[in-house]
Input
Amino acid sequence: MGIISIAAVAGLSLRSLIQNIIPPQEVTSSTFPTLTLVDSKTGKPITTSDLTVNSPAIVVFDYPLQNEPNFLLRLGNSSGQDVAIKAVTVKIPATGQTYTSPGGVGPYKSVVASSAICQHLGCVPPEIHYYPPGTSIPNTSISGSSNHGLIHCNCHGSTYDPINGFSVVTGPTTHPLPSVVLSYDSSTDTYKAVSMVGPTIYGHSSDLSGGTAISGNSTDVVNEGLPST
Output
């Protein structure tokens, strides 16, 4: 109870607390799974029309292991029009190393995904979530006019830029959010998660160890609704 009370004071959710104090079952794999993104309610594959441009709702799926949430975003400009996301060079401030982000997929090249676990201390949604273009981010200097669509963690203030490979905008994080590489099938308008690039997922020695494998060939996309802030 004492630990939970401390976590509440620190702004951590019970979900993030449990993830950080209870070691997951150890699973190690040498390859990333290829998983179709499916609607958690209908079981049908997610299509582009299921995703709203600049949606503030928290839409997540587990990958590459269970209990490793990832954001699924369809990015757009301030007018709500899809924006083609280019592959860019992303720097890891902690090491100075760089890597290339995967860029967007889908008919408008606007659909991207990243780990939803903050790289600072492991906070998860709803503490960390997406702020659409034009919205101010509370308790920061980022106003609506200066926000082109950012992910911000309310636990300690880390901010990430999904348009530019989920790169670091503000600390205390020193690592970008790892990107999920998505593939898109234009004949069926469906999406798959196929691998990850960037720094290792927070709390893991590698992206493919330290958790429980996802069974089957799909992973559920869950809409957790709007965050409170």
Notes: The longest strand covers residues 190-197. The chain has two helices and 13 strands. Residues 57 and 225 are 5 Å apart (CA to CA). The two ends are 26 Å apart (CA to CA).
